[in-house]
């Protein structure tokens, strides 16, 4: 289907954006590991300050930089997108599993952005770009999974949700929520 190809393209673009951002963030982290006081190119202001975020313990939650997890996940997501673009058949189980992984990563990104905002006190630009990539990935996967009209049982609820366009509202609302929280925390107080 032409519509599915478009959705796989959005998935691939979102994963590519996230992969590039995670790669650049990893390079910045390596610079910081060599010199903890280095001034990074992504340090735009005291609010948008990668050094502050990358030096925080939350940026290496599992003992290594979170950006390495992002590189692995975005590479996997990009490969799913490329397989779909090549018109190879992906099973529903693979697409549902990929959706679950993408939703988990989105939840992780939201947690990290809230932690950056309220605990660390700074925002990493690359984290925001990864978050936007995850919104694109999740939006595309959601449409691939829940807009076919052939669902049975409980999944039919998601199809009805998607058919009415509420999924797009959800992704846009998440982006607006993150923007609002950043503005509220750093500019309105």
Give an account of the 3D structure.
- With 189 residues, the protein is an all-alpha fold.
- It has a single domain, classed as de novo design (two linked rop proteins) (Up-down Bundle), CATH 1.20.1440.130.
- The chain contains 7 helices and no strands.
- Helix 4 packs antiparallel against helix 5, helix 4 packs parallel to helix 7 and helix 5 crosses helix 6.
- It is globular.
- The termini are far apart.
- Give the overall pLDDT as a whole number: 91
Strand content: under 5%
Number of domains: 1
Number of helical segments with 4 or more residues:
7
CATH topology (fold) name: de novo design (two linked rop proteins)
Instruction: Note poorly predicted spans.
Output: none
Structural class: mainly alpha
Biggest sheet architecture = none
What is the succession of H and E elements?
A: HHHHHHH
CATH superfamily: VKOR domain
N-C termini distance: 50 Å
Question: What is the CATH architecture descriptor?
Answer: Up-down Bundle
The tally of beta strands, per DSSP, is: 0
Assigned CATH class:
Mainly Alpha
Annotation keywords:
mainly alpha, 189 residues, single chain, de novo design (two linked rop proteins)
How are the secondary structure elements laid out?
Layout: H1 2-34, H2 50-55, H3 66-85, H4 92-120, H5 125-146, H6 155-163, H7 166-187
Sum this structure up briefly.
The chain is an all-alpha fold and 189 residues long. It has helices spanning 2-34, 50-55, 66-85, 92-120, 125-146, 155-163, 166-187.
